[in-house]
Design brief:
mainly alpha, elongated
Length: 101
């Protein structure tokens, strides 16, 4: 082997490893920053959505809706009975279908 050719040594391998390590750390730091910003954005969006839904739920007048249902059932007892039987049947099918697994 000629003297002007450099033999790969452990120190060369260590230098390569060190540069790869620092490159990997830099990429991990960038990835961490990117993920942190995306989590913050998602958190803000969820918070905004929660606030909107909460305000809509607070606006609903449950007493008024219940009174409307009572009035409809009193004026249309046959339809109300058929609707409740149909809804019960569908719920029963869905629950039974889940237990077949």
């Amino acid at each position: 082997m000629e003297k002007d050719q450099k033999d790969p040594t452990a120190s060369d391998a260590g230098e390569d490893y060190g540069s790869e390590e620092s490159s990997t750390r830099a990429r991990m730091g960038k990835a961490r920053e990117y993920v942190s910003s995306k989590v913050a954005d998602a958190s803000g969006s969820v918070r905004d959505g929660y606030t909107k839904v909460r305000s809509k739920v607070e606006e609903v007048d449950l007493e008024g809706a219940a009174e409307q249902v009572r009035a409809y059932v009193r004026s249309n007892p046959g339809k109300a009975l058929l609707i409740s039987v149909g809804a019960g049947f569908l719920i029963g099918l869905l629950l039974r279908r889940g237990n077949d697994d």
